[in-house]
Amino acid sequence: MMGCNSSMDTNSVLNEPLGGAGAVSGLNLPPSQWPLTQTNHAEVVCEFVRLDETIGKLEGACPGPRLATCEAWIEHLQTRRNELLGLDTVQLKSPNAGNGTTAPVTAFDQPPTVLPSHIMDDNHREMYIDGFTAEQALPYNNNNAVAIRASGGDNSIGQQPSNGFLPLPAKRMSSQGAAASNGGGGGGGGSVVTAGNGNMGKGDGGAIGNGVPRLFPSNNLVTKTPSQDLVNLALNLGVVVDLNKASTHEDFFAQLSESALHLMGLRCYTEILEHTKVRLKTLMESYAELNELYVHHDGIIAFISGGTYMSRLEERLDSQLEVARDVRDKLGSTLEQWRICGLLLRACANSATQSLKQWRKVKTIINPKEKIETALACRKDLQASLVSLECAQLSLPHVEIKYTSNRQILAVKHCNTYMITDIANMARYEHTSKVFIAYESNVSKASTWLYETFNKTLRPDFERAEERVKDLAKTLRDHREEIFTFARK
């Protein structure tokens, strides 16, 4: 392949040297056959050198392979979010479909069992939650929205295929271009993958997370508990100051928490998607700039050489450069995966640290209302940490992230679900504190471990591959500059 695109003749040059008065040593075309006779030849050669150097710098960032990885990651996140929304459909036999055809039917045709919108307090008074139910799915509001379980339904998310979601970059159009044009497709674009260590991406007993129900499509009832209503309910029931009342109503508040945490998780997925789309836009701009340079670069080479290699050395160097670029681009694609995982783990650790600070603060607060509000803020940050950890594991499906375990994650989810009613029970509060402290410590260690592992393994490999590309590109550039300059003479 000549240059960066496939516009050049890739046929091998003659093996035997040319002889005769018109031949030039080391070249396969006599000067009389060279097409370039313009007077601005020197400027054209200088422009070629400038473009080649600029392309080399931009290629080092691997925008094409990174773009393909980013596109595949977005498709995967969207698929995962749709599953949490309950938008996945199954092909069921429809009685109205003829000739044995099937029609997509949602898996949630049965009316849901609505969570209670009121309960009885100790004085046998009915207590209602304002705005608890809604006819349609409402926008997410703060951190206390709740969903409904399906009656007798299965809350499982569908089996996940074991294959990874990230494609390897294809041969260059340049290889950067081919990888970007195939982005997401090579790996089954958006297919669901199993987490690297099997901890995340699957629920306990077929449920999402710690038994958290799915959110139904908008044509089903969805319950929603605004934050202030939940605070008022907890205050009126006295669950944060009275141990007996907390024990009596813990299942009810656990139901509210499970559903609220589920919708908080959906919001976290949406935010991660939005951040990833910003990254995608940046990569697309870099790739578009690089592709434009490829066009001008290949045009100059074709204009000077007439579509053929001008020496055996040029052909050999170009072939070696393509191989080196292919290795570098594959490592660049993997580099983006590790970048995604590293950022998510860092966000996970930061959220865990913030939630631990808030949980410790709960113990020092005397005002019950402020105590509940602080606990809800803790719950929100902790859920954000758990979702970030899940996404981090999904972004590197074949890497087992150290210091994380399924057992500990389930313990954290359980404590987060029963957080409101555990405040009044000092023994449970201390147990929850120990769980949160261990979790915060481990995810911080995991984040540090990932960056250290990256700096010891993938980063040096990529730098060596990039250095190899730079050396070959410079050698080929200098050789072409020499033979292109000689073409005028």
TrEMBL record:
One of its GO terms (cellular component) is cilium. Residues 273-330 form a coiled coil. The keyword Coiled coil applies. Keywords: Coiled coil. Residues 169-197 are annotated as: Disordered. Residues 182-191 have a biased composition (Gly residues). This is Uncharacterized protein. The gene is 106084098.
